[in-house]
Amino acid sequence: MLVDGRLERLFLSQRETNYNKMKKRDQDSTKRIFIGILIMYTAIILFSCEKDNLLNEDAKWITYSSEDGFVCDWVKDIAVDAQNVIWFATDKGVIDYDGFNFNYTRNFDTDPSGASAIAIDRHGNIWVGSGAGRLCQFDGNNWKIYDSKDNLPRTDINAITIDDSDNIWLGIACMNWDEYCIGGGVWKYDGSDGIIYNKENGLVNDYVYAVAVDAHNEKWFGTGSGVSKFDGTNWTTYKTSDGLVSNRILAIAIDYHDNKWFGTVGGISKFDGVNWTTYTISDGISNNIILSIAVDSENNKWFGTKGGGVMKFDDINWTNYSTYNGLANDTVPSIAIDNTGNIWFGTNGGVTKYEIN
Question: 198-207: long-range contacts at Cβ-Cβ below 8 A with a sequence spacing of 24 or more?
């Protein structure tokens, strides 16, 4: 019995030893797996950071200040001419940049609202909107003023665009509550006569903040009560009941696939002609108040926000840029793409160029 007892204890001891060895091998294997996973994730993070650094090497942020000759804080609109001269509508007037120097083209000190909108026609004429219902045309040498004598109401000019027939379209509204401010809507100038369109004609609202022309020469107007489309004869209205995220439209752009993008006070709406798609903070954008939109040569959409910086959307991913990256200010009322692909951001704290190498 003693021998049997010793044998039993020996057997149990050997079994326990084998179990401990197996347990240790399992623990070592688990550690190796954990370490492997940790190394893999570390490599992914390092690769992502390196990729971001490589992307950042392909572009750089340049902000222009008073030291560079740019002394205006509020850049309301930007346009680029055929010679790649950049034109800025600012709170101090019109400034142009030829790649070397900033030049004051016209000083609007007599008008406290400064220059509010700017566009360039195919003949190279610069069209500038200001407060108190004044549209200014610059042919490179002389200025011509359009005002009440041309049937243009004494009101604020919020947007300017030019259609395929060289008609000038203004989005107008009383924005500063000037006691002399009269009327609103859309003003069209065909080279000889000025025509007003408003709610009486079919426009959904007389507060017009944005204007765009699509590939079919149809006009799109962003108002305080939705979007109006005008084909030259008929008016069509789109509101939240149709798919807009908000009825207050502050910006419009049309991409290379003829999709319409609307910046509103409640997010972004895209309209492909049939379906509406909405993007808000919950979808990855930085701010729901969209002040400006531009489309670059790769069909990326750039959105300027009120306090949320700039967002780029490539139809899959959203990328946010802010003062942390080099933007002059996180409120961006205007964006333009120049002839070499650089992106210009007009902010409430100056102008920033995102330079593509």
Answer: 201/235, 202/228, 202/230, 202/234, 202/235, 203/228, 203/235, 204/228, 204/235, 204/237, 204/239, 206/173, 207/173, 207/174
